[in-house]
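Here comes my example:
=====
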Amino acid sequence: MEMVFKNKWFYRLLIVYIFLLLIWNTYMVVTGNLLGLIAVVIELALLYLLFNKHRLAKTAIHFWAIIMMIGPGLSILGKLIKVATGDDLNFMVDSLVQNLLLFTFGLIIYYFNKKTVFIAERSQF
C-alpha cells in the first residue's frame, strides 16, 4: 500500500512548509533551544514518510496538523481571556497574528490531507 496525493500542489507545498519549519527549528536548536530538537525529529520523520509515500504518512500528517492547531488554538484562547479581563491587546497583537497563522496552516493541512490524500494498493507491473 502506498499514499496517493490527488493534489500535487498540496504535496509540494507541504514538503516546502515542513522543510522551512525544519530549517527554523534547526536554527533554534543551534542557538541553544534544545526543545526544538523534538520538532526537528518530528519534521524529519514526516519528510521521510512523505518522500517514500509511506502508508503511515497520511495518519502522521493528520496528527501533526491536529497538534499544529491545538497549541496555537490554546494560546489564542488564553490571549482572548486576557483581553476579556482587561489586558491591553496592543502588546499581544504580534503573538496573536502568529498563532492565528499557525492555526490556519494546521487547519488547511488537516483539510487537504483529509480530502486529497488516499491510501491505495501498489500497482503491480
